[in-house]
Fold this sequence. Notes:
The chain is α+β, with helices and mostly antiparallel strands and 360 residues long. Strand 8 (160-174) and strand 9 form a beta hairpin. The protein folds into 2 domains: 3-254, no CATH class; 255-360, no CATH class. It is globular and about 55 Å long. It starts with a strand and ends in a 9-residue tail after the last helix. The longest helix has 16 residues, at 257-272. 30% of the residues lie in helices and 30% in strands.
Amino acid sequence: MKTKHLLWLAIVAIMPLISCGAKSTDDKSSNPEVAYGNNPAFNTDFLKNLEVDVANIPDLSVPVGEQLPDYSYLKLDQVFRLLPMVKDGGYELSDDIFFIKGAKALAGGYTMLLYGFETGDDASLEMLAVYDKDGKISDYIDLGDMEAFIILKEDEDSRGGTARSTSITLSFPSAAEFALDRTVKEGGFQFSEERASEVTDCKMMMESVLRYTVDDKGHLALAEEKEVRRSGAISPKAEYGEKAAMLSLLPMSDPGRIDRLNGFAKEMLAKVGCDDCDEGFCCDILSVVQSYYDSNPQALLAWIYEKRDVENEIVKYLKKTFDDGWRNKHDLTRQIGKLADAGARNYLENLTDGWASDAK
């Protein structure tokens, strides 16, 4: 079974963050993103039952030190059992692209798993999932890329330019809660032979901490969301982009997350337009809508039906997703057909009838 050093090397050597001073001392995110433990103190029985190799699963609460873990990839049948929403989502799937980055025991006998999902070009996305003692998933958060480095503009001499970095770290103040520290920075960088890029100047930084609790049903709740630090000239694009990013970090079980996203989309429509969902601020909303569809398409479709008589901005972003071929229309038709409510099926079939059918 293949193992993975690649992501760690990318974080350490290829994706340096923009330096804007020391991390805020107001948060509790001093632990590394993933910590390695030879004898992790979490439930592995349900993983063993799926024939998952648990020997190299790091303990998220143990310092990593010098030794890097060898992550074991998962087969698709294992992924479908552990992450059932992935099978019905819009991901392009195959064996050996998902791996478990770490685990942590939570209160009430629940276990948290942090997954990596290899998307190609040495990049990956991360997902958090919570399980009961029998391995039934109780909640889920799509974290996106926990260590992203995006070149915004390259200088004419191709020696550097402007970049944005995003970093998410995970910590555990107690067994019944955890925190995500999200830091976004923009500034200048220069290419070098040793690194893909080296940041040399910082123009903007925003840091926020999100604290989650775990209840006796294994459901996650966002208990606190606060900005702990900011500096520099923050553009409206960065400001609104962060608001959209925070919506993407709401747990799957949160009953109000789609309402919050719809409210934000209406706010953006009033402030900046977003009639065609094509660029600028609208792309941030489009990404969150796609994430919600991927993680729980049934919930999103049921919400659209339930809100059919109120102002609804979600529909146009979902239509854009399929018109532009970002997701497969045949999958959408299948998802609609799985809805138990005949009225919902009929309404959504008529609503989506003219949407493009070919996929990218």
